[in-house]
Amino acid sequence: MRSVGMLDLQTEYDLFRDDIRAAVESVLESQRFIGGPAIVELEDTLRERVGVGSAIAVSSGTDALLCAMMAMEIGAGDEVILPAFTFFATAGTVTRLGATPVFVDIDERTFNVDAREVERAVTNKTKAIIAVHLFGQCADMDAIHAVALGHGLSVIEDMAQAIDATVGGRRAGTLGRVACCSFYPTKNLGGFGEGGMILTDDKSLADVARRLRNHGESQRYLHDRVGGNFRLDTMKAAILLVKLAKLEAFTKRRRKNAAAYDRLLEHSDVVIPHVPSGQKPVYHQYSILCDARDELMAYLKDHGVGSGIYYPIGLHLQPCFASLGYKAGSLPVTERTCSRILSLPCHPMLSDSDVEYVASCVCAFYDNVSGATSILGTAAKAAGAK
Ligand SMILES: Cc1ncc(COP(=O)(O)O)c(C=O)c1O
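Above are the sequence and the pyridoxal-5'-phosphate SMILES. Below is the predicted complex in structure-token form.
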């Protein structure tokens, strides 16, 4: 049976094998595993690519968020507004700093935060808004900035999934006070292990974040503030530099895959991703909304096609945030999306025919009238539909 997975890191590695081995070898020969030229080169390359004044390589996307918010002195008594529909780290880092995450609903069409809900959530304790560029498409930054400006708030970009995405010709990473990127292996620029980057035009924020990355050390063994060990390993930086060479081509391929899905699924029973004008997403995920989602997922699996649910539970309903008082129904768009979303394979190693095969399986599932009618009927009944 044909097999089309959500990822194909092995084939990707085959494209880079010799260069990656040479880069690793050179770090091994240097015996310098922390700091050094590869870290500086990676920071400089991303700083220039994104178009910001400072880039600080850190140990993960999570630590980028943590370190950036520490540098902004977000802490106890502060509230940070963020979408409930995102990866856990966006909220977990807020809580770890002693601040309170304030979850808001999303726009059902883009899966990104709804700026009107952000406005409603602002209080006199609000310190910042985290705009997540989910699935590789930028949040509605003009609307978010209008809210932020009106209330004197900072905007943090969570661009873990959105390296190279643009909106109105402006790049993710340049759209807020500070931006946080991830190099987790499955990301568009995926490393060999954990990794992340803080990007900002705010020089003083960058200086503080750079010190916090290294236990808040301002001079050798002199600590102005308590930081952490948020350093990126040199070996990982050297590998990321190799992988950067193909990022543009990979993004192009992701966009080609997405355009093919758009065409093949446009008139199907699923809702394809909405791309507002001016947006150029990088399709970290290609996510559809569908009825009978779990049945579709099982059908795809039976036909050798991988798929993923990002995310099955809104963060406001996670047990660890129960004390914040959200209930089922508090954020209806997020909750509805969690029950209907499905991401299809979109990685850069797919061929045209892989994409056609996946789309044909999706269509076949719904075209299978007897099976789909009963499945959809059951799903509709379960959802309380007429
Ligand atoms: C939206 C979002 N924010 C933050 C993170 C955290 O990044 P990392 O896994 O590198 O810590 C991720 C990645 O997993 C993510 O997808």
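Residues 9-30 form the longest helix (22 residues).
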